[in-house]
Structure formats: structure tokens, C-alpha cells
Specification:
This protein is of the alpha/beta class. The protein has a single domain, classed as Aldolase class I (TIM Barrel). The protein is 35% helix and 19% strand. It has eight helices and eight strands; from the N terminus they run E-H-E-H-E-H-E-H-E-E-H-E-H-E-H-H. Helix 6 packs parallel to helix 8. The longest helix has 20 residues. The protein is globular, with a radius of gyration of 16 Å. The protein starts with 5 loop residues before the first strand and ends with a helix. It binds D-xylitol-5-phosphate and zinc ion (ZN). Zinc ion binds next to strand 2. The site of zinc ion has 6 residues, from strand 2.
């Protein structure tokens, strides 16, 4: 159990001028998943990248592409992200009225399905789609930007979602303000996939990435194994 944490660096904090090299670096540095933050300037107040960039990155690593879609509407774009090589597509509860349909589309394409909630959204919003999802992503900041402070009231939401999930094979992932200082608390609450942008990419070198990833994994693991 203590070895079961997955660290998912968010490339939002990478050097975009050398994005392929950065993805290779975090792969070698110990990343389990590669977290890809897609932002549309509409659902969130920032714009990042879309399917062509993800497709270009795909040959640079064999690691699991964890695609976080902060876009609305989302349904029309799912085929492009599936075609780009995303292994998991995570959609926001708040992105549209047909969440169940979005998740059905992802599962029908043979990809892992994730659902995510903004900090203000109650966990009950996902109650009726749990049987369609592989991952519940709990936003621990308001989505849109890297480097924000962790919202500690989300720990209670993680605990409630863990209880709702019960025995289902669903992972709880957390995203926003995660680092060695917060990893222990989210692990204790029930998260097993930890997204981290600023905390992984600080230092800007392969050696820094490796020690940053180890520090986050170590902080999570210590708590879980106690
Ligand atoms: C926020 C994104 C996050 C972000 C996390 O909208 O979904 O994935 O990159 O960044 P940090 O770890 O720096 O808070
Ligand atoms: Zn994200």
C-alpha cells in the first residue's frame, strides 16, 4: 500500500520552449503519469495548449498521459484528445449539462475516464456517475494557474469522496498546491495520485526534478505507512 502513490507532474510549469525535452526529463526523473492541463480561456481564465501539442509529445514518452480538460463545451473536442494519444481524459462537472454522456464517450473509446470538481462544487455532484469513472480528481485550487496555495478545506471533500467510492476501483487524484508540505495531508485523507507543477519543476534541472518527485512521494508514503 505504501508504494501505491502515483506522482503526476503537471507540464504547465515546464519550460514550454523545450516541452518535449521537459517531458523526457520528468519521465526519467520518476514521474508515473504526465499531467496535461488543457485550458480554453473560457472555462478558466487562462489558455494553455490543445491536441496538436499533445500529439507531438506522445512519441517522447511511454508514460500515461493524464489529460485534464478545463474547457467548455468539452464533448465536441473529446475525439481530438483521444486521437492525440491521451490515456485518461478528465472532464469537469461544471463544464456542461451532459457529464454522463461525456464519460460514456471516453469509456466507449477505450480510454480511462476521470471526473473533476472545482473547490466550490459539492461531492454529491459525482454521485450518479461513479460507476463510469476510473479517477476522481479533486481540485485543491481554483483551476487556471499553477503555483497557487493549497485550499485545506478540500481535505474534508477528499475524505467524503473516499467514503462515497467505497470498494469501487476508483483512484482519488489531487491537483493544485501539492508539494512535500501538503502531500502527507492529502495522502492521509485518501488521495493516491498527486499532481504537482511548481513543486516538481522548481530548480529547472533533471536532478532537481528527481529530488522534487522523491520528496513528494516520500512525504505521501510516510503518512500512509504509519
Ligand atoms: C491548475 C492545474 C494544475 C496546476 C497545478 O489549473 O489544473 O494541474 O498545473 O499546479 P501547481 O502544482 O503548481 O499548483
Ligand atoms: Zn490539472
Amino acid at each position: 500500500m505504501s508504494q501505491n502513490f502515483l506522482i503526476a507532474p503537471s507540464v504547465l510549469s515546464a519550460d514550454f520552449s523545450r516541452l518535449g525535452d521537459e517531458v523526457e526529463a520528468i519521465d526519467r526523473a520518476g514521474a508515473d503519469w504526465i499531467h496535461l492541463d488543457v485550458m480554453d480561456g473560457h472555462f478558466v481564465p487562462n489558455i494553455s495548449f490543445g491536441p496538436p501539442i499533445i500529439k507531438a509529445l506522445r512519441p517522447r514518452t511511454k508514460k500515461f498521459f493524464d489529460c485534464h480538460l478545463m474547457i467548455a463545451p468539452v464533448d465536441a473536442y473529446l475525439p481530438a484528445f483521444i486521437d492525440a494519444g491521451c490515456d485518461q481524459l478528465t472532464v469537469h462537472v461544471e463544464a456542461g449539462p451532459h457529464l454522463h454522456r461525456s464519460l460514456q464517450t471516453i469509456k466507449a473509446a477505450g480510454r480511462k475516464a476521470g471526473v473533476t470538481l472545482n473547490p466550490a462544487t459539492p461531492e454529491t455532484a459525482i454521485e450518479h456517475v461513479l460507476d463510469l469513472v476510473d479517477t476522481v480528481l479533486v481540485m485543491t485550487v481554483n483551476p487556471g494557474f499553477g503555483g497557487q496555495a493549497f485550499i485545506s478545506s478540500m481535505l474534508e471533500k477528499i475524505r467524503r469522496i473516499k467514503a462515497m467510492i467505497g470498494g469501487r476501483p476508483i483512484r482519488i487524484e489531487v491537483d493544485g498546491g501539492i508539494g512535500a508540505n501538503t502531500a502527507g495531508d492529502v495522502a492521509k485523507a485518501g488521495a493516491t495520485v498527486l499532481v504537482a507543477g511548481a513543486a516538481v519543476f522548481k530548480g529547472g534541472t533533471f536532478e532537481a526534478y528527481r529530488s522534487n518527485i522523491e520528496a513528494i512521494r516520500g512525504a505521501a508514503t510516510v503518512v500512509r505507512s504509519v
